[in-house]
Specification:
Layout: H1 9-40, E1 49-54, E2 58-65, E3 70-77, H2 82-86, E4 94-97, H3 109-117, H4 126-137, E5 144-150, H5 154-163, H6 168-173, E6 176-181, H7 188-198, E7 202-208, E8 217-220, H8 225-234, E9 238-240, E10 249-253, H9 257-260
Parallel strand pairs: 1-4, 3-5, 6-7, 6-10, 8-9
Antiparallel strand pairs: 1-2, 2-3, 8-10
Helix pairs in contact: 3-4
């Protein structure tokens, strides 16, 4: 009868160390992915956040205001591009492109979006949609607004753009904003001014400069929620500095504006 050989203690120890090492790598990988997911998320859970879902024949705009406990849904028929929404200076945080998107229940719209997120062109994360879904589920019926409008109905769409997307904190701070157009493109300052006004911004002056600037800037004298929010949604690095203007914030539109501004 063959004698049973005892397991080699050294081999067992190596196997245990290897198993611990593999578990450590897996946990580290999960932690890094979780950290990256949180870092790349856009919705902070506290402030106005607006998502545009663009499909073949319409755009659905969903906007939440956690401080007001409100959720609004604006369906725009025959709008099927980011440029279409830009015509009415609608301030959007994130875009999602889905072939078919027609949720029957507005409060479950973000949940429905989750199934089509993979492979879609968007900066929204799964964490964003999960948090938006949780918030939407808590909204009371009296704080739920639903509007339908045609892209061709400019008057109604302009009024809705001016009322549905106001950020309560920007509106409350009332920081004064000056916009200086330092490009040769006429009307750019007015366009940007309306966009910021639709967010609740207090635009006090729009002017043009003979001195052309290459770089678009957002300069503030004191760091506020408004300066940070505008810098983020417009994709302009906000910087502190002295300026001759009487306003709290100065936005100088440079030649690079079309490339960097998230409009």
């Amino acid at each position: 009868m063959r004698k049973k050989t005892k397991p080699n203690k050294k081999s067992l120890k190596i196997a245990v160390y290897f198993g611990v090492f593999v578990i450590f790598i897996l946990i580290t990988s999960i932690l890094f992915k979780g950290f990256d997911l949180v870092r790349s998320s856009s919705f902070d859970g506290n402030n106005r956040f607006t998502v545009a879902v663009i499909s073949e024949h319409k755009a659905e705009i969903l906007t939440v205001s956690p401080s007001e406990g409100a959720l609004s849904r604006l369906r725009i028929e025959d709008a099927n591009s980011k440029e279409d929404l830009g015509v009415y200076q609608i301030p959007i945080n994130s875009y999602v492109y889905l072939r078919n998107f027609d949720p029957k229940n507005t409060k479950s719209a973000f949940t429905n979006m989750l199934s089509g997120l993979r492979g879609s062109d968007t900066n929204l994360t799964v964490l964003d949609l999960f948090r938006l879904s949780l918030f939407a589920a808590t909204v009371d019926s009296e704080n739920l607004i639903e509007e339908n409008v045609s892209f061709e109905d400019g008057e109604k769409l302009t009024k809705l753009s001016e009322s549905l997307f106001i950020d309560p904190k920007i509106n409350e701070e009332k920081a004064t904003i000056q916009i200086t157009n330092s490009t040769e493109l006429q009307g750019f300052g007015k366009y940007l001014g309306q966009y910021i006004s639709n967010l609740g911004g207090n635009v006090v002056l729009i002017n043009s400069s003979q001195e052309k600037q290459d770089r678009t800037k957002l300069i503030y004298t004191e760091k506020t929620y408004t300066s940070e929010r505008l810098g983020k949604i417009l994709n302009i690095p906000a910087e502190t500095g002295e300026h001759d203007a009487i306003s709290d914030i100065v936005i100088i539109i440079g030649e690079d504006a079309w490339e960097i501004l998230n409009l």
